[in-house]
Each structure stands twice: as C-alpha cells, then as structure tokens.
Amino acid sequence: MLPYLSPWFATGHAAPGQQTPGKRTLVVEFVGLPGCGKTTVANQLLPLLSARGVRCRGRRSAHQPWKRRLRTYASTAAFHLRHPGSATASVARALSLSPLELQRLPHALRMAGWSRHLKQPVIGNYDLIVLDQGIVQDAWSLALGASAEQDKYLRRSIQASVGDAAVNLAYVYFDIDIDLAVERIRARASGTSRFDRMRDNEALEMLHKHRGDLERCFTLAVEATGARSCHIDASSSLDETNQQVLEFVLDALAPQRRATTSSASKQSHQQDST
C-alpha cells in the first residue's frame, strides 16, 4: 500500500438541516514521537466526545470496506494526476532538502494531498476531526535527517498543506520519555512506521537525535497557523492522558458549540414567530 494513498475522511453525510451556516469544523492534530499513544488516545477519545453530543470522527474509519478503500486510493491518485501543481511543488520542496533521499518522495505526495483533504465537503458534517497522524507528523517524517534548511521547508510545507481550508485548527503535543516510547513501539501490533522495523538501539538513537526536530516542527506549525495548542504528559496513565486531552478539546470546541446553540435558538424563535 502506498503510504500517501490513505482513506482520509471516509464519505458520510449529516442529516438535512444539521449544519450551521458559517460553522468551521475543528481539526485537532496529535503530535508526538512514535509510541506516545496518539492513536490509542484518539480511539478512546472519540466515543467520549460522541457521548457529549459532539459529531466527531477520526482520520479514517477502522471498519471501512476494502472496496471503498480502493476507491479512495484511486480518487487520491486521480486527484494528483488532474492537479499536478501541488504535488510537483511538494516534491520540489522535498528534493531541496539535503542529503537527497528518494524515500522522501512518497511522503511529499502525502503532504501534497492535505490541501485537498481539508477542503472535502464531508468535513463540514462534523464538529470535530481528530488526526492521530496529520500534517505536522508527516512533515517531520519527510524531513527526518535533513539539514538545517528544514525549518524553511517545514513552515512552507505546513502553510501549503493547510492552504485556505475553512477549518479551525488545534494541536496537542504528547510529551513522553524516549525509553517508554520505544517500549510501547515494541508492544504494539506491527505497523508501517520505520520505527517498527528498527532494533531497539537504532530506534533510541533516532528518537534522541530527532526529538528536538519534532518539537520545533510543532512550534513552527502553531506559529504558521495561529492555532491554539497544548502539551500533555503522555508518560502518565492512559486515563490521565485521555482526561487532559478531553479537557483541551472540549475547551477548544466551546466557542463553536455556543455559536451552534445560539444559531439553533434563533432558528427556533423565528419558526415560532411565523
């Protein structure tokens, strides 16, 4: 499976009349070292939010039929063929990094797809989208091992990926001890991350060497987008981590939910008046 052909935001539609005019979906991206628990927290957070009346979903549906996945892969590939400009620019930025590594190219194509993913109409059907693997994480993976020029690359790539998407953004950084991160990588089911294929000493060396790059990438994303953000201690228990993230997300959603309630009240009042 090509890494950039992922079934982002599987199709789905809200019931008629649910959407609020001018509403901007909140897209929360989790950022952190492999093994910090981003996917685990996302999977446990969504049911908690749904129980509170938040229309939310994750990066993809875990139970999406394989035929739909294939259609999504084909659609993504067709998009790159019809609109080569964003892909070409992303690849050019990736090739500007040194040392030159061809393995950056699939990541570059994945980055190019974000400007499309964040503009899909289906996103407007939700109050919240949670990305356990998003733009910042992809940008870091692409630039891993690059020279000091990566800051300029990262900022431009993040801005290009977000584009003019009509969404609100927020970021959560998962702080974790590196030894614990590697321990969790070994305990999880086999994945596609390069770290899953490394020996423990290799993973420890790589994470120690590039942890600062990820933290800087997070900071650049917050500065480039003006999004709200927070750091949480992912070394604590899963329940504690879930609670920290839940509180941040609910706080970030509060203005949007107040606006939705106000709009619904106005519509109800207008209907009563007629």
Structure description:
55% of the residues lie in helices and 11% in strands. With 274 residues, it is of the alpha/beta class. It has a 5-stranded parallel beta sheet, sandwiched between helices. α2 (66-82) packs across α3 (84-95) and α5 (135-143) crosses α8. The model is unreliable at 1-8, 10-21 and 262-271 (pLDDT under 50).
- The count of DSSP E runs of length 2 or more, i.e. the number of strands, is 5
In which range does the helix fraction lie?
40-55%
What's the overall geometry? Answer: globular
Number of helices: 9
Strand content: 5-15%
Distance between the termini: 56 Å
Give the averaged pLDDT, no decimals.
75
Low-confidence stretches: 1-8, 10-21, 262-271
- Tell me about the largest β-sheet: 5 strands, parallel
- Spatial strand arrangement across the major sheet: 2-3-1-4-5
- From the helix content, strand content and strand pairing, which structural class follows? alpha/beta
What is the ordering of alpha helices and beta strands?
Answer: EHEHHHEHHEHHEH
Rg over CA atoms: 19 Å
